[in-house]
Amino acid sequence: MKESYIRLIQYLLAAVIVVAIAFHLQLFSSLIGPGYIKAQTWEEVASRMDNPFYDGVYAVLLFTVLTHAFIGVRNVLFEFITSRVGRVVTSWTLFIIYVIILLLGIAEIVASAS
Amino acid sequence: MSKMEVKNIRFVVKRWDPKDGRFFESEYTVPVYRGMTVLDALIYIKENIDKTLAFRGSCRMGVCGTCGIVINGKPRLACETQILHLNTDTVYLEPLHNLPLVKDLIIDHTPFFEKQNKIKPYLIRRDMEEYWNPTREYLQTPEEHLRYMQFTYCLTCALCYAACPTTATNPDFLGPQALMNTYRFIADSRDEGRLERIAIIDNPDGCWGCHLAGACSEVCPKGVDPALAIQLLRREVAKIAFGYVEPVEGAKVAPSLQLTEKRITKGPPEFTVEGAEEKLKEFKIPKTIPVEKSK
Fold it and tell me: From the candidates B166, B197, B210, B237, which should be mutated to test the interface with A, based on the most A CB atoms within 10 A?
């Protein structure tokens, strides 16, 4: 994959994360105006796991954050690893770890829904 | 302070001995007058105090970019830096960072120019016949020229390269000058090598390696903004990544001399450049040039 695609994906996901954080802060901390009027109970939060819409949102958030983070870690490691072979090995190692964590996370979302 | 008044300033020079490969410091006291530059002081030291001190300098007017050194922690041109403007009693001089040393304050520019050569710092054209046997200049509007004009002021003094924190940690990083020069040619309407150059810089050691520290733009003695060029370069790369590729046909060659003669002899010009005739109509050119009467 071209470097520009990787970087643009990271920038795009960063924007998504910023919007998600702003949305979250607005809902629960009333960042701009009044958010939720009453406090959320644990049961209410847990019950969302049965809602397919929330499962989808959690999966998207997991994908967004993990992808952004792993590209970021790769960029940082590339500062220190300058050899071509080293960079290929680093990229593949990170990709494998990324896929494992992503699958574990999605499995967790699916398990909590059932 | 008048020109004749003299103030003694202490110079501490961080030197490098190529024989045993170690750094050492030498201290000198130089009588400084108003307007005296760091290069003048180095010449004074060389002529009057220590003949072994090695440094480089040439034009003495900020044009050649040879005398770049680190003055009080900041890369500057020695010939453009007035000592009294530093407002200090001690001036600390070092060779430029991120480049191999030759002796004392002299650095080897080879890696710097090698990186510049990587990005093909010349016009790339497809019409090779015209390229090698030019008949006339390529046409370019003032607006097209303005797109890259500031980037042509670069002296290749390597101050930006010495100031860049990414270059300090990653020796394979192309560096601000080479990346800025890439944009300079990509933005040039006469150039047709955009895709070729972007293929060279679209990697972690190219435009994506920049952390946007902005140190390059801060130290440039000519006011060039390499950090801006790198961001504009990223935009160009992003455009191509999104499939937005502008036609790469370069500027056309100016009409031949025969046509110019025709214009003179046979009245209205015959324009070959698309839209040029309409553009010319926008200008209200008087038929006779008014001559100011002498009083």
Answer: B237
Same-domain check for residues B134 and B101: no
pLDDT tens column, A54-81: 899 999 999 999 999 999 999 999 988 9
In a domain, B282, yes or no: no
Report the number of distinct structural domains present in chain B. Answer: 2
Contact B226, B179 (CB under 8 A): yes
Statement to judge: residues B101 and B199 lie in one domain: no
Give the distance from residue B237's alpha carbon to the nearest chain A alpha carbon, in angstroms.
7
Average pLDDT over every residue of B122-139: 86
Is residue B250 within 8 A of residue B189, CB to CB? The reply is: yes
* CATH number attached to the domain at A3-113: 1.20.1300.10
C-alpha distance from A76 to closest chain B C-alpha (Å)? 10
The residue from B107, B139, B167 where one domain ends is: B107
Q: Nearest by CB to B202, from A2, A80, A82: name it.
A: A2
Can you give the pTM of this predicted structure? 0.80
By DSSP bridging, strand B90-94 and strand B74-77 are: unpaired
- Domain containing B82 — which CATH number? 3.10.20.30
CB contact under 8 A, B169 and A80: yes
**Sequence letter at residue A10:** Q
Chain B nearest-CA residue for A7: B208
User: What is the pLDDT averaged over residues B52-63?
Assistant: 95
Mind giving me the DSSP string for A68-107?
HHHHHHHHHHHHH--SHHHHHHHHHHHHHHHHHHHHHHHH
Range of the domain at B219: 110-241
Q: What is the CATH number of the domain that holds B138?
A: 1.10.1060.10
Do A78 and B204 make contact, defined as CB atoms within 8 angstroms?
A: yes
The Cα B295–Cα B281 span in angstroms is: 35
How high is the ipTM of this complex?
Answer: 0.75
| Residue B149: half-sphere exposure toward Cβ, Cα within 13 Å | 8
